[in-house]
Amino acid sequence: MNARALQVSTIVGTILQVAMVTLGHWSLPLQQLFPVIGVTISLVAGVIYGRMARDGRGSSAKAGALAGGIGAFLGVVVSVLLGDAAPVVLAIGTISSAVTGAIGGAAAGGLPQAGRALG
What we know:
Blueprint: H1 3-24, H2 28-32, H3 34-53, H4 57-81, H5 89-109
Helix pairs in contact: 1-3, 1-4, 3-4, 3-5, 4-5
């Protein structure tokens, strides 16, 4: 696992998750999109890890799950503290985001490096 790639992808995912729930605190239409936007952010965090680390699919999936799950967990904590989400969302949101982070990591970790020929 690439520590730097994990750090960057987790920080980016966390910033985006916290920004989403903070802005959503004042916007009901945005709140209604939290599940879709939240898992998409986690997917992106996984892709960031996979593209940066080049660890291969398996390792990138594990790290993508961490990056996506950690960012989502912290975003949901903020949302719960703001009174916009029920505590049960901590489990549901974290698990679903970890899964999409893993998908993003696996997908990006298996891509060839830019500038290299396939095969």
